[in-house]
Specification:
Chain lengths: ~325, ~525, ~350
């Protein structure tokens, strides 16, 4: 019995990597609020929310996709292309009320292309979405070149940056929280979520249990594209600027937070709360470093190391457990 | 060490005229809670083909993997030429002259046939570069020795299993392997291919190779082997010269208990036909397949591995689409290639490969047990976990599944308990048609009996059971009717009274007596 | 026919295998695409084929050819190395500052670059092999880490051409018979790696590892050593790429090679190297890199907006993997038919 105890004691904290990330995030927020000047202010809170919004929007869908064992590297390019398309539509005199849903639809269509190539034709998602990463970014340059469309209506841009009444709560926090809740519910408390985990844990066994694996993956890419379209809308309004290079390189950050949040790159494992915490941790860290006048370059090292450690630590612990067990057996 | 060895030599009766080329003595191996081997003994002599027989789960594969250097034994010893050795990997076993041909050859599809034979040992010429011409020449020479025609320069991709085995055998003789282990090599071969293989094996034996031959087919064992070892439940039972034992004696030792004790007796009157398969065609099947299963009936689909049995049940369930033909449940046609529709109509499939197809090994027992009912357990579209926990607990308890916690990963369970989780998963859907593909493969004897009783009880309750099995005893003991498949079509149908080991095997191997 | 007579009987039946044809066809397809593109561009503007224009093209292609060679070695083992852009940046900066402060000779600078890259590759290989971290994750992590290190070392400063020794800059801009040294070096490296991969046991082991890892284990291939070797090679070549970068551009700051990894992966995929290992050649990858460079240089000549470049690259990647799948399926069918015919 004592051996069982020891094993489970070693296993528990690692089995719930997301709990560790949540705890680390909370600890960091408290320490930063106490030690970094201006970090804990209401105004800074607003900045952090605005900074994390695009990462969060993309990470929600990415979590589902990675949990099924696939990947979507084209999300940031999809943001860029929808943003560029918004610029073109705006220049054409189309009202913003029409442009916004059109942008989300465009994102969905771009996601459907990914879905068609991966789930439909059975091509590896890594290669496909590297292809569409280049394709979509390229198309956004084709649309806008290196010009920017900046004359967005004040009502919309200031709402995006504004807060609810006199309170310090940013307007965008409400839809963000609602979307996070929806994705969390779908992944953790619906039959679709069960299918997502099953498809990632073993596509073959999932198919034998009646999970329509390919159809599921196709629609997840559509969802991912739509979220990227939504992010394109947010990005354009937040910076009052539609540019072809909007959100350039953001896909790596998104993949990093998803993995850091405890989702396995092989699929089948992970939970949304961990990913949410990782999004907050990364954004707040960046913000605090900026406030403390520490070079943000330090952050790239931290992000990269955390990402490796997130995957490395459980593996090392597992092999340590194996060695331990083997040694016990030999002595026994 | 030395004392132990000499002691063992004293106690053991003289094994024969010569020191065995390879021997395993008192070997034990466990995986977690599962004892795969408890006390295995085996002696292999040059110039002799030695049969190893035993039920599935008797520990034959584990024994082979120990001999191949893949696993290290927990206890016992391996001897080569009478000297005790330890293999710390496959390379060490290969260096000791042991070559293993697995049931499913593991080749490199992107490399050429010749490279597959010589990987890591390619002949080298100038500057240490691989001499491809020489390599192809040597490969061709090997094939000539084996009497087969294979192009050494083509990629291994797309070769038949039989040809792939020949490549592995060519690899074995290229290093002058002294021990050739063959794990059910004929399981996936046609009659002609098997004959060719036997010719090759005979040639090697005559040249002095020690051959270990694992097979479920006693006609092959009798024809090819000079000595036979029986294993049961991970332990050695007996070793005899082939001509000193009868097949019936061997079966008795393999099973270790009487036929009647193994299989529940059952006498129910079958109801109307529930599952009707009419002129089914798909890739991998030679012809059209038609049959039906009635309520309360157990129909076995027998035949050799590769005869198309799994292809039939996969097409019935809709994992793979069918090219033509109809599948009806209670008279209603099932659409092709849609497992969800089959499930909705009351069909359940317990697949052949538990670890790949039946279970999500990394997910919890609870998730596995309730996956197929994820929609029906949801309330207003949501699953809170409570209903899943309740159902999983109930069904695993009904099947007397042993586990630590419902949240443990399914992969941590023993084979028998894993199979119970798969069964629980499907029985909870209250199926009208239960298809089980190799329901007792790789599980212990006690659980086997439980599964048999369960299938029998289900049939008694009016479920139509279609059982694919490679174990003749299981087929004969359980089935009301036996459909025998051969090379992609149904070779014949036998009812309970006419089904014997001989009659089934005749149909399966295509050696039926002229009418 | 005399040549055939000397061959073993079994081979005589089939001259070349279907897969051979496909591979050759693949390289051939790339060459044809290159030729067609060059021809079309030249038809529009003959100056595209001028010595100066060709030289520019080879200058532009040298680094991607080199890095694509290294990437191929890793991708063959079912891996990927996303950190090559950061490794290039690190090596370029370190080599550049060594040259500007100490003024070491060119060969030593090259060795330094190789060493820096090999060190980074060792880190990648160790994380992948010993830590059992999937290559995608491991090298995504080191992409950040190595880039962060460059920022640390460089701060906001940059190395200018005026800081670098003249001999080094001559190496960067010089040509032999009209071919830039840099491109000649890249092609020489590619040739060596090509011979290694096709004619040496350890090279074939890489194909075996990518083709069937489980079987590789069974047949006693030292997977760990081979994987480490692959990542160290890829890192070293990215490091060498850093030296070439510094030599060619003269100015190096902390962002050198930023985002380059995607171009390299694109070149490899377009060059017909299977992303899941086991098949493809460095020659194909090199041709892929060359094709991308030609597209880049041809667009302005064809008066297509430069903005189309990336979109075309993306479309090429999708077309390449879709084509490979189609060809693969057809080959498999052909091989099965052939096997069935042989059995009869």
């Amino acid at each position: 019995m004592p051996t069982r105890l020891r094993e489970s004691a070693l296993m528990r904290p690692l089995a719930t990597w997301d709990a560790a990330v949540i705890a680390a995030t909370a600890a960091f927020l408290i320490i930063a609020a106490a030690s970094v000047e201006h970090f804990g202010t209401a105004r800074n809170f607003g900045y952090i929310v605005l900074d994390l919004a695009p990462i969060l929007l993309l990470a929600l869908a990415m979590t589902l996709i990675v949990t099924t064992g696939e990947i979507d590297l084209s999300v940031a390019s999809t943001v860029g292309l929808t943003s560029a398309a918004m610029g073109v539509m705006w220049n054409a005199g189309i009202p913003l009320e029409t442009i916004m849903p059109a942008a989300v639809l465009l994102g969905a269509a771009l996601g459907a292309v990914n879905g068609l190539f991966t789930a439909g034709f059975g091509l590896p998602s890594l290669a496909v979405t590297i292809g569409t990463l280049a394709l979509y970014r390229g198309l956004s340059y084709v649309l806008l070149g290196d010009t920017a469309v900046a004359d967005w209506p004040r009502d919309f841009t200031s709402w995006t940056l504004g807060t609810i009444g006199e309170s310090p709560i940013p307007n965008v926090l409400i839809p963000l929280a609602a979307l996070a809740a929806v994705f969390g519910l779908v992944l953790h408390a619906t039959p679709v979520g069960r299918s997502v985990y099953a498809a990632g844990a073993s596509p073959v066994a999932a198919a034998y249990a009646g999970v329509p694996v390919r159809r599921l993956k196709f629609w997840l890419y559509v969802v991912s594209g739509s979220m990227a379209g939504l992010t394109g809308v947010f990005w354009t309004l937040r910076y009052s600027s539609a540019r072809a290079d909007n959100a350039f390189g953001l896909e790596l950050t998104v993949v990093a937070v998803v993995l850091l949040g405890g989702v396995s790159i092989f699929g089948g494992k992970g939970a949304l709360p961990g990913v949410l915490a990782a999004v907050v941790l990364l954004t707040a860290l960046q913000n605090a470093l900026r406030l403390a006048h520490v070079s943000t370059e330090a952050l790239t090292v931290v992000t990269g190391s955390l990402l490796i450690v997130a995957v490395l630590a459980p593996n090392l612990a597992a092999s340590a457990r194996r060695t331990l067990r083997a040694r016990r057996r030999r002595t026994a | 060490m030395r004392l132990g060895a000499s002691l063992a030599a004293e106690i053991q009766p003289d094994p024969g005229p010569a020191v065995p080329v390879a021997a395993l003595r008192g070997v034990a191996k466990r995986f977690g809670a599962v004892k795969a081997l408890t006390d295995a003994h085996l002696e292999l002599h040059g110039g002799e083909t030695h049969a190893l027989v035993g039920e599935n789960g008797a520990g034959k594969s584990t024994l082979i993997k120990i001999l191949a250097g893949l696993y290290r034994p927990d206890a016992g010893s391996i001897e080569i030429d009478g000297r005790r050795v330890e293999f710390d990997g496959t390379a060490a076993a290969a260096a000791a002259g042991i070559a293993v041909i697995y049931q499913e050859p593991a080749l490199f599809g992107d490399l050429t046939v010749a490279e597959n034979i010589f990987i890591g040992r390619q002949p080298r010429g100038r500057f240490g570069m691989i001499d491809r011409a020489e390599m192809n020449r040597r490969a061709a020479a090997l094939f000539e020795r084996l009497g087969v025609a294979l192009d050494p320069d083509r990629p291994a991709k797309g070769l038949s299993i039989a040809d792939q085995q020949l490549i592995e055998i060519a690899g074995a003789i290229s290093v002058d392997a002294r021990v050739l282990v063959m794990d059910e090599p004929t399981a996936a071969l046609s009659g002609v291919e098997a004959e060719r293989l036997f010719g090759v094996v005979e040639g090697l034996r005559e040249a002095g190779t020690a051959v270990l031959f694992i097979s479920h087919r006693f006609d092959e064992v009798e024809a090819l082997c000079q000595r036979v070892t029986v294993m049961r439940d991970g332990a050695h039972v007996s070793t005899d010269p082939m001509d000193a034992v009868t097949v019936d004696e061997l079966i008795g030792r393999m099973v270790g208990r009487s036929f009647e004790a193994m299989f529940p007796h059952r006498s129910t009157e079958p109801g109307p036909a529930v599952l009707e398969v009419d002129r089914l065609r798909r890739g991998g099947l030679a012809g059209e397949v038609s049959f039906s299963v009635r309520a309360g009936e157990i129909v076995a689909l027998a035949g050799l591995v590769g005869a198309g049995r799994s292809e039939v049940v996969q097409a019935v369930f809709g994992i793979e689409p069918r090219d033509s033909g109809t599948v009806r449940v209670d008279g209603r046609r099932l659409p092709s290639g849609r497992p969800q529709a089959a499930m909705a109509a009351g069909v359940a499939l317990v697949p052949e490969d538990r670890r790949q197809q039946g279970l999500l090994l990394d997910l919890s027992i609870m998730r596995n047990a309730t996956l197929v009912r994820r929609k029906s357990l949801a309330r207003f579209g949501f699953l809170t976990g409570r209903a899943e926990r309740r159902e999983a607990a109930e069904w695993t308890a009904r099947l007397r599944t042993r586990y630590g916690s419902l949240h443990d990963a399914a992969g941590t369970l023993s084979g028998g308990n894993q199979q119970k989780v798969v069964l629980a998963k499907w029985l909870s859907t209250d199926p009208k048609v239960l298809i089980v593909d190799e329901p007792t493969r790789g599980i212990d004897v006690a659980t086997k009996a439980e599964v048999h009783r369960l299938l029998s009880d289900l049939a008694a309750d009016g479920v139509a059971v279609l059982m694919v099995s490679s174990e003749l005893l299981e087929v004969l003991g359980m089935a009301d009717r036996v459909l025998v498949m051969r090379e992609g079509s149904i070779a014949g149908e036998l009812d309970r009274d006419r089904a014997t080991e001989e009659s089934v095997m005749r149909l399966a191997t295509g050696q039926e007596a002229p009418a | 026919m005399t040549a055939l007579g000397e061959r073993p009987a079994a081979t005589a039946r089939t001259g070349s295998t279907a897969l051979d044809l496909v591979l050759r066809f693949r390289a051939l397809g790339l060459v044809l695409a290159l030729a067609a593109l060059v021809a079309a561009t030249t038809a529009v503007n003959a100056r595209f084929l001028s010595a100066q224009s060709l030289r520019d093209l080879l200058f532009a292609a040298a680094i991607t050819v080199l890095l694509a060679t290294g990437m191929t070695v890793v991708v063959l083992t079912r891996g990927i190395d996303l950190s090559v852009g950061s490794v290039l940046g690190l090596s370029a900066y370190l080599t550049g500052s060594l040259l500007s402060s100490v003024g070491v000779p060119v060969p030593l600078a090259i060795l330094t670059g190789l060493a820096v890259g090999a060190a980074c590759g060792t880190v990648n290989g160790a994380i992948v092999h010993f830590g059992r971290v999937p290559p995608l994750v491991a090298t995504l992590g080191t992409l950040y880490v190595f880039r962060g290190v460059v920022y640390f070392v460089a701060g906001g400063s940059r190395i200018n051409a005026s800081d670098l020794p003249g001999a080094f800059l001559d190496f960067g801009s010089g040509t032999v018979l009209g071919v830039p040294y840099l491109f000649a070096l890249a092609v020489a490296v590619l040739a060596v790696v090509a011979v290694f991969l096709s004619r040496y046991r350890s090279g074939r082991d890489l194909y075996a590892l990518g083709s069937n890892p489980e079987a590789a284990r069974l047949s006693g291939i030292p997977a760990g050593r081979r994987l480490m070797g692959a990542y160290v090679t890829c890192g070293a070549l990215a490091g060498l790429g850093g030296v070439l970068y510094a030599a060619r551009f003269g100015t190096v700051d902390a962002s050198a090679g930023y985002g380059l990894e995607l171009d390299i992966v694109a070149a490899v995929v377009v060059g017909g190297v299977a992303i899941f290992g086991g098949s493809g050649t460095v020659v194909g990858a090199g041709l892929g890199a060359l094709l991308l460079a030609v597209i880049n240089n041809a667009l302005p000549v064809l008066s297509v907006s430069q903005f189309w470049q990336q979109a075309i690259v993306g479309a090429l990647i999708l077309a390449a993997i879709a084509l490979d799948r189609l060809v693969g399926a057809r080959t498999a069918r052909a091989l099965r038919r052939k096997a069935a015919a042989d059995a009869d």
